[in-house]
Design goal:
With 303 residues, the chain is α+β, with helices and mostly antiparallel strands. The protein is 33% helix and 30% strand. It has two domains: 139 residues, Aminopeptidase (3-Layer(aba) Sandwich), CATH 3.40.630; 134 residues, Aminopeptidase, CATH 3.40.630. Strands 1, 2, 3, 4, 5, 6, 7, 12, 13 and 14 form a ten-stranded mixed sheet that branches. It has a five-stranded antiparallel sheet with strand order 8-9-10-11-15, with helices on both faces.
Length: 303
């Protein structure tokens, strides 16, 4: 534990979940308002319940997890968290409450959660806040492409394809197939994350002549990631996700696509999905992967 002026930096724990989510809520709502959007509405606790499982998974598997709290009253007002899988080192979150930003605390959180020299590949999914982008360049990453959130109401949809869809289970062969697909498209394996996803979302493999060539995860509340070895298969993969979300009773859903995922973008825009004005940037210390055939996990904290 390190005490600095009127605040304390300490290791985060799973018990900090709701407190750090309040920080995220306030910080993102403030940024959306400053960029011309509407502030968030609704009860923070209700939204927290929807992502409590994700927060606990990130807290329990974090590579680094640091919290900033007031030294006098113990209020949590900032945090940063990173995850690491097979050499892929991702800064998942870095948020400070409005009024605590630009005071050097964010830099200290960043240095602890995203230390130099960690990971074979280093990535950040960044908001378009110029202060954050400046900090992320300082730690060696640069912007590679924009990411767009496309939202809409799911409905049954058919796309002509020769792909066969099969539900994933925890069988070693299925988990090995996910690893192989990840290695080919994003160059890193994520077996722990996929096991957690299979506990909270339905997972599907897409087969061509019996060979796995894609996957997708979907539930009533959470979506992604989605992957296809052939970029031209993205519409079929996304159509399956939309149809299944409708069957599960989802009244709205959203996909997060890299801007150069041409097949996926055109498919969703053609379906009437709308681009949210809140655009983010994918930053990394090196160019890697084939993200024209990939859609990001939602919420967009990790790949």
């Amino acid at each position: 534990m390190t005490e600095l002026s009127n605040f304390i930096l300490r290791r985060g724990t799973p018990d900090d979940g709701l407190a750090v989510y309040r920080v995220l809520w306030d910080a993102v709502s403030d940024l959306v308002t400053r960029t011309g959007g509407a502030p968030f509405e609704g009860a923070v606790e209700e939204f927290w319940e929807r992502r409590a499982s994700l927060d606990r998974h990130l807290a329990e598997t974090a590579a680094e997890y640091w919290v900033a709290e007031d030294a006098e009253d113990g209020e949590v007002f900032g945090y940063a968290r990173s995850v690491e899988n097979d050499g892929l080192f991702e800064l998942a979150e870095l948020f400070l409450r409005p009024g605590r930003q630009s005071g050097g605390i964010g830099r200290q959180l960043l240095d602890r959660a995203f230390p130099p020299g960690r990971g074979r590949t280093r990535t950040i999914m960044a908001t378009v806040d110029p202060r954050a982008i400046r900090s992320y360049h300082r730690v060696g990453t640069v912007a590679r492409f924009p990411m767009f959130e496309l939202g809409g109401t799911p409905a049954p949809v058919e796309v002509a394809t020769d792909l066969v869809t099969r539900r994933i289970d925890h069988a070693p062969t299925d988990l090995a197939a996910l690893d192989a697909l990840d290695l080919e498209v994003i160059e890193h394996r994520r077996p722990g994350d996929h096991r957690w996803r299979l506990e909270t979302r339905e997972g599907y493999l897409f087969l061509r002549r019996g060979r796995p060539v894609g996957y997708g995860f979907v539930s009533e509340r959470g979506f992604g990631p989605y992957l296809a070895l052939d970029a031209a298969d993205m519409p079929a993969v996304l159509a399956q996700a939309e149809t299944r979300a409708h069957q599960l009773g989802a009244t709205n859903m959203y996909f997060i696509l890299p801007g150069h995922n041409a097949h996926g973008m055109r498919h969703l825009l053609g379906r009437g999905f709308k681009i949210d004005p809140f655009i983010t940037l994918f930053m990394s210390d090196r160019a890697f992967g084939q993200f024209d055939r990939y859609a990001i996990f939602t919420p967009q904290l990790i790949l």
